[in-house]
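Please go through the protein record below and explain what the tokens say about the fold. Record follows.
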Amino acid sequence: MKILKSLILILMFIVIGSFAGEKILIDYGKDKCNFCSMPVKNEKVGSFAITADGKKLTFCTIECAVGYYIQNKDTIKQLKVPNYLNPSEFLDAKDAVYLQSEKLKTPMGMNISAYKTKEDALKMQKEYGGKIMNWEELQKAIKEEFLPRFQHKMHHH
């Protein structure tokens, strides 16, 4: 019985430890954006990606993260964006619901925030206005409105 209890305790520490590690995924103020080179300062929009070879990339905003993703799709294994209402919770970029609102300013000017549910996004839209987008719509908006500003950074394959 003691062995079983010990094993359960060890497993709990492993599980808890793996979640605790999530907190230092972005070193705000120190990490630089892998897309535009600005420091990553805003925890409500600072995002990160994990590459296929396990390297972590950080981004100052969701728009920079998605811009990088669009240009380097094949090398990105995971793209995570912060839940605007609970910034320490990172959401899979493909599952998040996005709001583009002039009243929720972001450093790169596209003013994109991410939410866990459509209900949360709708509540924020009611309060701040703007346009709700899913992952596909967000990529289209980034391609059309954001990436053209960075033509010199475009990678042609």
